[in-house]
Specification:
Radius of gyration: 18 Å
Largest sheet: 9 strands, mixed
Number of helices: 10
Distance between the termini: 31 Å
Helix content: 25-40%
Oligomer: single chain
């Protein structure tokens, strides 16, 4: 292991082999494992502020999720495949059970972990991530990412600008200043490789195909759930669940919360009024406080 002195407290960071997949592993702190799963266009770096606040209580694990950042792309860009790799990752780092926290795409994978192997997920923490539904009006960018070749070309010629615009455009007014200097450069560098961009786009394209397949099946009278964050017909989240939502999210709006409350009735919900989409970096204090209250 190597130590990253730029983090406080110091963080251990290395590439590890997980069943033939290379995963960038980050770890800090001691205590029960807390697996933190990021979304796009970020990497595990986004949990830095939260880890600073929680490392005295938890062993905070912050990998680059398979298919994003410096971790290898999975064979298939679906939640089942990624969740299986993440369970193998936990085995590799000696964490048979873990608290699991996911933001954005990380939330989709966290939901699937809790659905597939609930005995291994002690608590589930979801941060601005939808469950079983999206807002088409706000999620228009998914359609753009499904266009052939155009997104890849856009990232090749204007990737830094696209990353910067996404980070500031989906943040609250208060949070936009967070993405300057090192944090912005970290994410821009992470997605300058065309293969990494292609892998990230693969998730959006897969979920779109699955959603289309679901609609076709519904129309022929077969009620089969096949979206990336669905667990199959009738499956429910039983794990103790905390949902933290930045209420100024311009990508995944608070209008998604009633559906989550309906589908996960036991969930505790914390609303952060002044926070946008990127809660871990915009409001690390609020998120850490909610976790401290939720987990005994």
């Amino acid at each position: 292991m190597t130590s990253s002195g730029s983090w406080s407290p110091p963080m251990d960071e290395r590439i590890i082999d997980v069943g033939g997949h290379k995963v960038l592993h980050r770890e800090v702190g001691e205590g029960p494992p807390l697996l933190c799963l990021h979304g796009f266009p970020q990497t595990g770096h986004c949990w830095r502020g939260v880890a600073d606040r929680l490392s005295s209580r938890f062993r905070v694990l912050m990998p680059d999720v398979p298919g994003f950042g410096a971790s290898d792309a999975p064979a298939r860009h679906d939640a089942d495949t990624v969740a299986a790799i993440l369970f193998d990752y936990l085995d590799s780092v000696g964490a048979p059970t873990s608290l699991v926290m996911g933001h954005d795409w990380g939330g989709a994978f966290a939901f699937r972990m809790a659905l597939d192997r609930p005995a291994r997920v002690d608590h589930l923490i979801i941060v601005n991530s939808p469950f079983r539904e999206l807002s088409p009006r706000h999620s228009w960018y998914i359609g753009v990412m499904n266009l052939p070749l155009i997104p890849e070309l856009a990232f090749r010629f204007a990737g830094d600008r696209i990353i910067g615009s996404a980070l500031t455009g989906w943040s609250s007014d208060k949070g936009r200043g967070v993405f300057e200097g090192e944090p912005l450069l970290t994410y821009q560098e992470a997605y300058r490789d065309p293969e990494r961009v292609r892998s990230a786009l693969g998730f959006y394209r897969t979920v779109s195909r699955q959603a289309f397949s679901k609609q076709v099946k519904l129309r022929v009278g077969r009620l089969i759930h096949t979206t990336a964050i669905e667990g199959g017909s009738g499956r429910r989240i039983e794990t103790p669940t905390l949902v933290v939502w930045g209420m100024q999210d311009h990508a995944l709006p608070p209008s998604l919360l009633p559906g989550i409350k309906r589908d996960i009735p036991q969930a505790e919900v914390v609303e952060l009024a002044e926070c946008g989409h990127f809660v871990p970096e915009e409001c690390p204090d609020g998120l850490a406080e909610a976790i401290d209250t939720f987990v005994p």
